[in-house]
Known about the structure:
Elements: H1 3-31, E1 67-71, E2 76-80, E3 87-91, E4 94-95, E5 104-113, H2 121-126, E6 145-149, E7 155-159, E8 168-170, E9 174-177, H3 178-187, E10 193-196
Amino acid sequence: MTTHSATRLSRRLFLAAGSVTLAAPALAQQAGTTEMRDPLSTYTSRNASSFRTRDWRPHFATLGDGAILCDIDSRALHYWSGDESVYKLYPTSVPQTDDLTRRGETEVIRKVEGPSWAPTPEMKERNPAWPDFIGPGPDNPLGTHALYLSWQYYRIHGTQDTRKIGRRSSNGCIGLYNEHIAELFSLATVGTQVLLI
């Protein structure tokens, strides 16, 4: 074998090994669930080490009308249906700073397709140039769907700016890709319990 052939073969082996190594976490992720059809196709690598499935039992006494767990640290949202037949795991955006972050128990009190947006008084104070109102559409920061929580001003919603997912980028809400919030919107009901940890 010539030196040129050996170099080419070594390069191919290196690239093949690298591909297998990069694919291993995604394959392991899929092996642990049956309901995750598209778990990481649009997922960013910013929180890959902590983006993993969870069990609902340490967090909820019962599933009731379903349960949503928002993990601020791993930037992931977990959904379980009341009968445990559906489990979903989505990457999210989370609040930019700890003072914007709220943790604890709440619930879905309203579902809106095509939500409008208005900044909170605190947001307007921090950013006076922001508009007072944006109606539904492509410029709306809440994306295509929103789940309103019992805490005033807090939502789980979509986003038109996909660069935000996987980052500390929100003003307090939990953001999802529009296709993921549309799916979650179809699964969650008014009364679905929500826990932010």
